[in-house]
Amino acid sequence: MLTIATGNKAVASAAREAQPDVVAAYPITPQTEIVEQIANYVTDGSMRSQYIPVESEHSAMAACIGASVTGARTFTATSSHGLLYMHEMLHWAAASRLPIVMANVNRALGPGWNTWAEHSDAFSQRDTGWLQVYVATVQEAYDATLMAFRIAEHHDVLLPVMVNLDGFSLSHITQSLKTVKLGDFIPPIDLPHRIDTTHPVGYGPMTGPDQYFKFRWDIERSMRDAVKVIADVESDFASRFGRQYGQTEEYRCEDADVVLISMGTLGKEAEMAIDILRDEGIRAGGMRLRWFRPFPKLDLAGREVVVIDRDYSFGFGGVLAHAIRSTCRTDLYSVIAGLGGQEVTYDDIAEFVRSRKIGTEFWFGVTPDV
Amino acid sequence: MRERLALSTPGEGAAGKTGSWRVFRPVVDKERCNTCGLCGMYCPDGVISEDLTIDLEFCKGCGVCANECPKKAITMEREER
Amino acid sequence: MFEIRIHSRGGQGGVTAAKLLAQAAFNDHKYATAAPFYGAERRGAPVVSFVRISDEPIKVYSQIRSPDLVVVLDSSVMDVIDVLNGIKPDGTVLINSAHAVTMDGHTTHHVDLTGIALSLGLVVAGSPILNTPVLGALAKLGIVSQESARKAIRGTFTDERNVKAAEQAYAEVTV
Amino acid sequence: MSELPKEEYLKKCTSACAGCSSTLCLRYVLKAAGPDTVLVVPACCTSVLQGIYPTTAMNVPVYNVAFAAAAACASGMSTAFSATGKKTNVIAYAGDGGTVDIGIQALSGALERGTNFLYICYDNEAYGNTGMQRSGATPIGARTTTTPGGKLETKKDIDRIVAAHEPPYMATACSAYPQDLYKKVKKALSIQGPKFIHILAPCPPGWRYPTEKTVELGKLAVRTGVWMLYEREAGKLTINGISKAAMKKPLPLEEYLSAQGRFKGISVEAIREMQLTLERNQRRLRNEEEGLC
């Protein structure tokens, strides 16, 4: 069905379609609309999930963990400080190999209080063992949420998935949305290690130095296996519903001399910038990174690279820039822009590319010699 | 199935043969024992069976049984190792 | 791409007006996005929201800086905000006012949305509803079709007075 | 004793300290709950005493969870079981630190939401697993590794905090009375909604008394009135007989204190404060039972 929706409503609508058994969530700006919408769905009977109105995000994730380990399909949503408050439980969920799906509405961290878009909240959870995908349109928020369940629950993965959408600039904007009838796209959940009181086991007991590392390695192995699972699920999604996604979304990249890499809504705005640059005779291409964990293998050989980070690792640099610098063994021009919802237009992005100085870092809006 | 996470299977000896922890061992005077079963009821580790024999492989030697026995039928005697 | 900037005060329905307009444009088989700009404001503070309508998919997420049309739901915001900021040279203005207003050489349409809402009793918590009647005025200006506007309103509100208000605004707006 | 099931759900043997009263409690909790039970265990002695992977002494599923998360995790579990029509008992089994301190928010939330589960706090009045640091449940005057001069504050009254949530069933128990504990767990599990049982569980290394005195210490706590045994079912309070008797003819508090190394050198003021606290507590309970408040 073709309709219009905000990013938040698209996520809630996808969650309803996936029919989780349990949703445990706590409201936080700008994610609140997701929780409200799910509460509405549950109340009007269109969603048959059990909704647990927990008293904190730490408890939201703990409740999801408790539900998930019984073999139930489980969903939650959060943002910013809520995500950070969950941090301990994010590790717990992943290491318990629980396929929980969570929408995270990317938002800056305080102080000062700032409810606008930034990726630092999710990037600071990058080592928790969660798969992370970043979306750029209302449609993609919907599609990625649906696919997240199938990817997470796949037996070669069995890790939780975080679907990230930019606060306000995607969560609150209204765009068209094609909803789908899932059919058998997501098979029934089958958690191999779900609690069975007729075959009792102890979950996550004391595990000594002679054993512990094996389980860590298996998380990494599953992250690596997830690359293929993601590709398979995305291609099956394309064949059923006609929309193809990948680890990255490329725009006029084939013959590009300079590739601009970014994430989230800035990646869409960047396409406008690429068109402007092309009109000026600069052979630029855009690459929007969708999957951050597992991190994709990018081929950037022989190209100049400009990276926009909507985040920062203090005392170090842009997190995305660093990831690309190290995995692609390439130097690049690192732009820090859009922090806390800082307005970044396609004109600004085009100028980042024009004035690139490979090997340096540029903070947008701050004097360049800082 | 791959070993994805630490799942422990129930079994005896999860903490080893805890009988080796003992300094004193309970010794039952069958003459005095009236089989009231309080020793078994109070044994924290449940190593005293229904017929009131003490599993010395696992008994940690805490002495609760001796302390609670109304007939003073259990004495704690030094382990000789 | 046609870009519309809506100025209002918190609680007046500017954000909902943007959504309704996007829905109506969508009903016309156009691409549309509605984006509220959420500041730290509270009720009564000036609020701005953006609508983009296009025949092509819309990739822009940043704020509208050079609108084709500026809609002013509350003329008092003009005391604190330059609503014409960045407007295209041939850009036009739609203003909620009982009287004609001249705006620095830009074609300006006016309609008494407040009067329409009050006459129909469309008042919620003491505030006249402006977001549904404004859709009628926008339809008259050719931004969306009248039928699509009606459909968008009916898809969101059950009170038929909203449709009536839009029809009245359609009839009364100056062109 | 004949009414108690013979089944043991703790395999020989846990790595609990010799004379551990919380293990004794767990034996009876599980006897009462039976095999269709899941334990949710936050960081506490019980996380360790199950044994080391790959073998566990626990013959029911145990989900080990982070320190602050037991009640919330149990919430999710209980909700999921009921969503799939399962009647499995969900029991959070947590120490005093995980209950009165770091886990109190999750506990309060789960109680308020009416979660169908049983929360058991086994209270050894300190962070036992990490070597006896003070907790909110440590009594005044007790020496712990973080109160080397004796704790200055009185024990946090978690029972009144829980009671304010008006759960359909709550009770206190003590490891020295395992049959009483068994009955209370049985009753709790027969009731729908959130249930809370607070067990005083003496700890030989933490309280510094010889291991064989574990049951004796528990009895002393009850007979001196330091620990009151009662149940509150559907808002109606019943003080158990043994505590009623103790209120009439209590053993002197000093008998309880002098049996433990942790109270060595306790000040007269601290003893007086403890005495006043227990009298206040008894008065309050008696008044409630008699319908005077």
TrEMBL record, chain A:
Transmembrane segments: none
Every Pyruvate:ferredoxin oxidoreductase core domain range: 256-349
Alphabetical keyword list: Oxidoreductase, Pyruvate
Pfam families in the record: PFOR_II, POR_N
MF-aspect GO terms: oxidoreductase activity
Quaternary assembly: Heterotetramer of one alpha, one beta, one delta and one gamma chain.
Protein name per its UniProtKB record: Pyruvate flavodoxin/ferredoxin oxidoreductase domain protein
Highest taxon listed in the record's lineage: Archaea
Biological process according to GO: organic acid metabolic process; response to oxidative stress; sulfur compound biosynthetic process
Pyruvate flavodoxin/ferredoxin oxidoreductase pyrimidine binding domain span: 14-234
UniProtKB/TrEMBL annotation, chain B:
A GO MF label: 4 iron, 4 sulfur cluster binding
Keywords, alphabetical: 4Fe-4S, Electron transport, Iron, Iron-sulfur, Metal-binding, Pyruvate, Repeat, Transport
Location of the 4Fe-4S ferredoxin-type domain: 24-49, 50-79
Coiled coil spans: none
PROSITE patterns on file: 4FE4S_FER_1, 4FE4S_FER_2
Source domain of life: Archaea
ATP-binding listed as a keyword: no
InterPro entries: 4Fe4S_Fe-S-bd, 4Fe4S_Fe_S_CS, PorD_KorD
Cofactor: [4Fe-4S] cluster
Record-linked PANTHER family: PYRUVATE SYNTHASE SUBUNIT PORD (PTHR43724:SF1)
Subunit structure: Heterotetramer of one alpha, one beta, one delta and one gamma chain.
Name the UniProt record assigns to this protein: Pyruvate ferredoxin/flavodoxin oxidoreductase, delta subunit
TrEMBL record, chain C:
Source organism superkingdom: Archaea
UniProt protein name: pyruvate synthase
Alphabetical UniProt keywords: Oxidoreductase, Pyruvate
UniProt catalytic activity: 2 oxidized [2Fe-2S]-[ferredoxin] + pyruvate + CoA = 2 reduced [2Fe-2S]-[ferredoxin] + acetyl-CoA + CO2 + H(+)
Organism ancestry: Archaea, Methanobacteriati, Methanobacteriota, Stenosarchaea group, Methanomicrobia
Enzyme Commission number, as recorded: 1.2.7.1
InterPro entries according to UniProt: Oxidoreductase_gamma_subunit, PorC_KorC, Pyrv/ketoisovalerate_OxRed_cat, Pyrv_flavodox_OxRed_cen
PANTHER family reported in the protein's UniProt record: PYRUVATE SYNTHASE SUBUNIT PORC
Presence of keyword Oxidoreductase: yes
Pfam families: POR
Cross-referenced NCBIfam families: PorC_KorC
GO molecular function: pyruvate synthase activity
Domain Pyruvate/ketoisovalerate oxidoreductase catalytic: 10-171
UniProtKB/TrEMBL annotation, chain D:
CDD domains for the chain: TPP_PFOR_porB_like
Gene3D superfamilies in the record: 3.40.50.970
MF terms in GO: oxidoreductase activity; thiamine pyrophosphate binding
One GO BP: organic acid metabolic process
Domain of life: Archaea
One Pfam family linked to the record: TPP_enzyme_C
Limits of the Thiamine pyrophosphate enzyme TPP-binding domain: 54-199
Assigned keywords, A-Z: Oxidoreductase
Subunit structure: Heterotetramer of one alpha, one beta, one delta and one gamma chain.
The name this protein goes by in its record: Thiamine pyrophosphate protein domain protein TPP-binding
The species this protein was found in: Methanosphaerula palustris (strain ATCC BAA-1556 / DSM 19958 / E1-9c)
